[in-house]
Structures are given as structure tokens and as C-alpha cells.
What does this fold into?
Amino acid sequence: MGKNKLKRFAENNTFENLFQPSFQEVWNNDFTLKGKWNKNFFKNQNPIVLEVGCGKGEYTVNLAKNYPNKNFIGIDIKGARLWKGAKEAAELAMPNVAFIRTRIEHIRSFFSENEVSEIWITFPDPQPRPSKARKRLSSSRFLNYYQNFTKKNGIVHLKTDSLGLHDYTKALVEQNNLKILYCTNNLYNSSIADPILSIRTFYEKMFLEQGKPITYISFELANDRELKEPEFE
It folds into this structure.
């Protein structure tokens, strides 16, 4: 392991905005802040927004800068990546930012029913092989996880350079009769003008430089039924 990674891991332990529970703490167990994020960490009743698979936390931090009346939590398993977002938020003393280092499979251990308002998925691994569909962060498996703790009609946003992942997610949403709010296979050549979508991560800038169009879809979760996989592949 490189010295830079070791240094970042050590510094991660000093950040009050970064939570790194052990596997044993969250495997079939509730994290200590589950159901208490507003009261015990953010100390307000503002809406909570998650970014799953947040990487370096660029989107999480920039969302928090643009929306100080919302609370943002970035989640990823890579501690060396999370270091960047946690460090920036700590240095700027941002009270509406937190990060969690954990596997997304454990996400239900961190949040209670009706605790989260929105979820962002930005440039995740598209898992293109059909056999890996259940690992996609917008799969029915994970959307059903999210429904356990989102408010009624909670919103999911997906930005990706993968047309395959975009089309798969759109098919899942349509097959389960979920309400689509926005949908485009070329975001920056569309009529969608929301400035929130202009935040660009390292990977997004790289994809744009390669000439890849950026897709976007946002939709409401159901919360009252189990979602099924689409007949897509």
C-alpha cells in the first residue's frame, strides 16, 4: 500500500464528518445514527439527500454548497477516495455534509423509514454483463433497499455516460410504473436547465472530453410495493 494511501487513511480517522463502522457493526445491526441523523449529527430537520457510490465526494460537496438548507451524505467503500470530499468539507466547516465508508449492501443499517428525501447515483460502474445486473446501483434490488428508508415519492437521480445503464434503468422504471420526472440520453443537448445538473465530477469531465454524451433520468420511488427487474437484456 502506498504512503499516500496510508496517510489518507490516518487522516480519515480525524474527520468528524466521516463514519467508518466495521463490518460487524453494520452486518444485521443498526448503526448508532440510524433514525437520528437530523437530531444527533446535523442538528436540524432539513431534508437528507444521499449520494451512493460517491467516489471522491465531489457531487456531495458541491450539492451541499448549492443547497445549504439540505443535508448531504456521501457513501462509498473506498476510503482513499472519500478522503478528498471529507477533507474539503472539514476545511470549509460545512455543517450539512457527512460521509460513510461502507458497502452499499449495508445501506439499510444506516437509515430508518422516511429518513431520506432523495438519492443521487453519479457515474457508477454500469456492470454491463447481464449476470451482474443485481450489482447495478439502480437495480430493483437496490431500489427496494432505498424504498425502505425514503419518504413517500422519494426521488432517485441517475447521471451516467453508459447508455446501456440508462436504458436499463428507464426500462425498470417504466415496467414498475414509476413516475419519471426527467429523462434524456444527452443531458447537455437537452432542454433541461436545472443548474444542479451542471456539477461535473472528475469522471464526468473525462467522459465529456472523450466525446461521450451524458445521460440523466430522475424518477419517484413507489414505497408501497416491491419493484421487479425489467425484461430488458
The first helix runs from residue 3 to 12. The CA atoms of residues 61 and 89 lie 7 Å apart. The helical segments are 3-12, 23-26, 37-42, 58-66, 79-91, 140-147, 163-175, 202-209. The mean pLDDT is 93.
